[in-house]
Amino acid sequence: MTAGRPPVPAYIQKIAPYVPGKPIETLEREYGITDSIKLASNENPLGPSPKALAAIARDVDKLHRYPDGAGHTLVHALAEHLNVLPEQILPGNGSDDLLGMLARVLLQPGDEVVIPDPSFLMYTIVAQSAGAVTVNVPLKDLAMDLPAMLSCVGPRTRMVFICQPNNPTATVVGRAAFENFLSALPEQVVVVVDEAYFEFVRDTDCACGLHYLDATPSVVTLRTFSKAYGLAGLRVGYGVMPAQLVQWLQRVRMPFNVNSLAQSGAVAALSDTAFLARTLDVVHGGLDFFYRELTRRGIPYFPSQANFFLIDVGRPADTVFEALLHQGVIVRSMRAYGFPTYIRVSVGLPEENQRFLNALDKVLAEGK
Question: Which residues in this protein are found as N6-(pyridoxal phosphate)lysine (predicted)?
Answer without folding.
Answer: 227
